[in-house]
Amino acid sequence: MSLPRIILVTGTDTGVGKTVTAAALASTLQSRGRSVAVYKPCQSGNVDGDSDCSEIVRLAGPLTAEAGVVLEEPLAPVPAAALDAVELPTLAAHAGRIGELAEEHDHVLVEGAGGLLVELDHDGGTLADLGILLGSGAAFAVVGRPSLGTLNHTALTLEALDRRDLPVLGVVLGTWPDNPGELERSNRATITSWPAPLLGTLPAGAAALPVERFREQAPLWLNGLPA
């Protein structure tokens, strides 16, 4: 698959490294001379200072980054919005803004909330549904853990995308340990044998690296990313 204009970054679960992956993708694309925008449909956890857009900008460097809605509590979007008494944007509104960003940039990275089927609006719309709205110019990057259970979680996410005829750019393994054991190596070998390509592995603690080193290393981590 050639590199799409819009890449939706989803995870097999929360906390698997979606934000760091989005930052590494942004760094890699910028190292190729591409202009990049980042869009987060629903950012929760603002009360704790969580901002995935700010973290991506910190790691990848100056770029356009914005959230469709910012919610206070560190919950899934629908319950977080209920506590804030906020009306969530529709998927159509998100798709419209992503389309505008795509007209102004070479690539738009869209980071989901949690996993693929977490609801992003009050009508049950998910990141998968947003991918359907965005059409053929978009594809998914699936981020998973290298640890026990990842084969099932990753396979389920890929199956959900396949059942919806949504294109998959590839899989990224986040939080790769400094000294991987047989379990991690076996999981990586198995995922590599699947039809969806392995785009790369991101080291555990990548976000704590000096930003210059992060930006330098990101293209090496994502050595399976197509041109």
From TrEMBL:
InterPro entries with a match to the protein in the record: DTB_synth_BioD, P-loop_NTPase
Chief location: cytoplasm
UniProt binding sites for substrate: S44
The protein's Enzyme Commission number: 6.3.3.3
GO biological process: biotin biosynthetic process
Keyword Acetylation: no
UniProt-listed Gene3D superfamilies: P-loop containing nucleotide triphosphate hydrolases
Cofactor names: Mg(2+)
Location relative to the cell: Cytoplasm
Entry binding sites for ATP: G15, V16, G17, K18, T19, V20, D52, E111, G112, A113, G114, G174, T175
Superkingdom of the organism of origin: Bacteria
Annotated Mg(2+) binding sites: T19, D52, E111
Active-site residues annotated for this sequence: K40
Keywords assigned: ATP-binding, Biotin biosynthesis, Cytoplasm, Ligase, Magnesium, Metal-binding, Nucleotide-binding
Keyword Ligase recorded: yes
Any one cellular-component term (Gene Ontology): cytosol
Known catalytic reactions: (7R,8S)-7,8-diammoniononanoate + CO2 + ATP = (4R,5S)-dethiobiotin + ADP + phosphate + 3 H(+)
GO MF annotation terms: ATP binding; dethiobiotin synthase activity; magnesium ion binding
Family to which this protein belongs: Belongs to the dethiobiotin synthetase family.
Subunit structure, as described in the record: Homodimer.
HAMAP family in the cross-refs: BioD (MF_00336)
Listed name of the protein: ATP-dependent dethiobiotin synthetase BioD
Source species: Arthrobacter cavernae
